[in-house]
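Help needed: design a sequence for this.
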């Protein structure tokens, strides 16, 4: 997956998240972000990685996003790996 395609997937994930009235407040609370922050950082690859990381916390979220966008369930993590810093996972 090329970086441009990865960014497109992550932006779609952000848009899907923003349209999810139940999940969006959870994301905002978990990240400490505001709606204005989302708008300002929507093109920042590091922020987009955090969106994909958030969705990956629950398989049901990944499934719902992928089903809504017609994507394979592996696509969000492929996108994550192809964004700057996305290949570096530190679960410590």
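Sure. Designed sequence:
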């Amino acid at each position: 997956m090329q970086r441009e395609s990865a960014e497109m997937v992550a932006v779609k994930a952000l848009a899907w998240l923003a349209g999810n009235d139940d999940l969006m407040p959870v994301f905002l609370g978990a990240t400490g972000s505001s709606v204005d922050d989302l708008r300002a950082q929507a093109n920042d690859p590091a922020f987009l990685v955090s969106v994909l990381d958030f969705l990956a916390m629950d398989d049901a979220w990944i499934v719902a996003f992928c089903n809504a966008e017609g994507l394979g369930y592996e696509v969000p993590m492929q996108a994550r790996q192809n964004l700057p810093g996305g290949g570096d996972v530190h679960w410590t």
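The chain has a mean pLDDT of 87.
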